[in-house]
């Protein structure tokens, strides 16, 4: 970007712009080279003009949420990284004609795990699977995040997108979800930001919901490693099987390439045991894919996104 673009970008947002900012501090893997700019968008009214400017100047951009399920290349990325701030981290409950459910409008920057705990206090069921999932609501929609038999697509009423032209609301019947993916988002990638999600949740007893969430949190704590930075489950589970089981069967637990290692606790976690690069992770990923394909006949598809 040139000086005029720098000045315009700075004027469009209330928060200071971080120039030539390394992204390892923004990702759960603690890996990633620099972006030209990291922009935190605190106010809803800032987002549409910002996207319009980026479109007019043909500047690439991407929202990274909390940087989970993400691997950023070592040389960094061209363009702007957007992070949704304070006004995208709110939730508003709305009554409905159905006494059994409540509609909640949630900003896309709201942390999914925090939202799940808030719903527990409000006596709202349906998002308990999100306890412990570290991403934001926006990322959870795009990834159709889920665990323990639940997933985002089962509770979404609508999704609101912000583009350079304005806002668009997409109703549930128009959304196309599959395992760990909102298929329809590909048409909006690079031109629209998920800014708000409308969820339909069941009314329940807070104590019952709290007990259920506690069980899931304990399961997650016992099943998943946390001693090193990681991106969560690295590969998608194949149909009727587990990526972790297949990786274990190929004898990969503890295998390391540079600073990247297959967790000794869970085969589907690639961790940064210190100083790992994106290249280390990619090389380890390819080794796992090749060996599991030979041993089990299954090609493991990454769940992590690469930028």
Over the alpha carbons, how many angstroms does the gyration radius reach?
A: 20 Å
Task: Please report the distance between the alpha carbons of the first and last residues.
Answer: 19 Å
CATH topology of the largest domain: Uridine Diphospho-n-acetylenolpyruvylglucosamine Reductase, domain 3
Assign the CATH class of the largest domain. Alpha Beta
CATH architecture of the largest domain: 2-Layer Sandwich
What is the total domain count? 3
Q: Figure out the total of helices.
A: 7
Mean pLDDT: 93
How is the biggest beta sheet arranged? 6 strands, antiparallel
Series of secondary-structure elements, N-terminal to C-terminal: HEEHEEEEEHEHEEEEEEEHHEEEHE
Q: List low-pLDDT spans.
A: none
Report the portion of residues in β strands. Answer: 25-35%
Short summary of the structure?
Helix content is 28%, strand content 27%. The chain is of the alpha+beta class and 307 residues long.
Tell me what the structure shows.
The chain is of the alpha+beta class and 307 residues long. The chain has helices at residues 3-12, 44-56, 112-122, 137-143, 206-223, 243-249, 278-296; strands spanning 18-22, 34-41, 61-63, 70-71, 77-84, 91-94, 101-107, 124-125, 146-147, 150-151, 156-163, 167-171, 177-178, 181-182, 192-203, 256-257, 260-262, 270-272, 305-306. It has three domains: 3-87, Uridine Diphospho-n-acetylenolpyruvylglucosamine Reductase, domain 2 (2-Layer Sandwich); 90-223, Uridine Diphospho-n-acetylenolpyruvylglucosamine Reductase, domain 3, CATH 3.30.465; 243-306, Uridine Diphospho-n-acetylenolpyruvylglucosamine Reductase, domain 1 (Alpha-Beta Complex). The strands form six sheets. Strands 6, 7, 8, 11, 12 and 15 form a six-stranded antiparallel beta sheet that branches. The protein starts with a helix and ends with a strand.
């Amino acid at each position: 970007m040139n000086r005029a673009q720098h000045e315009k970008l700075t004027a469009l947002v209330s928060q200071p712009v971080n120039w030539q900012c390394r992204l390892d501090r923004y990702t759960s893997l603690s890996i990633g080279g620099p972006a030209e700019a990291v922009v935190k968008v605190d106010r809803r009214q800032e987002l549409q003009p910002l996207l319009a400017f980026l479109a007019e100047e043909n500047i690439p951009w991407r929202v990274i949420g909390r940087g989970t399920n993400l691997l950023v290349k070592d040389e960094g990325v061209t363009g702007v990284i957007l992070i949704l701030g304070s006004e995208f981290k709110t939730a508003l409950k709305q009554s409905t004609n159905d006494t059994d459910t409540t509609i909640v409008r949630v900003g896309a920057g709201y942390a999914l795990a925090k939202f799940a705990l808030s719903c527990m206090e409000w006596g709202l069921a349906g998002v308990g699977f999100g306890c412990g999932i570290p991403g934001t609501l926006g990322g959870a929609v795009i990834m159709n995040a889920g665990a323990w038999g639940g997933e985002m697509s089962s509770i979404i009423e609508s999704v609101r997108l912000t583009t350079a032209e304005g806002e668009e609301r997409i109703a549930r019947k128009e959304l196309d979800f599959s395992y760990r993916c909102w298929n329809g988002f590909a048409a909006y990638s690079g031109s629209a930001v998920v800014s708000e999600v409308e969820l339909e949740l069941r009314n329940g007893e807070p104590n019952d919901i709290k007990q259920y969430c506690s069980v899931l949190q304990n399961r997650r704590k016992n099943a998943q490693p946390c001693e090193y930075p990681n991106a969560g489950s690295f590969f998608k589970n194949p149909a009727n099987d587990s990526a972790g089981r297949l990786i274990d069967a190929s004898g990969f637990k503890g295998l390391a390439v540079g600073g990247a290692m297959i967790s000794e606790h869970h085969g589907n976690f690639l961790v940064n045991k210190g100083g790992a690069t994106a290249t280390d992770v990619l090389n380890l990923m390819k080794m796992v894919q090749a060996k599991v394909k030979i041993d089990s006949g299954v090609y493991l598809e990454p769940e992590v996104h690469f930028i």
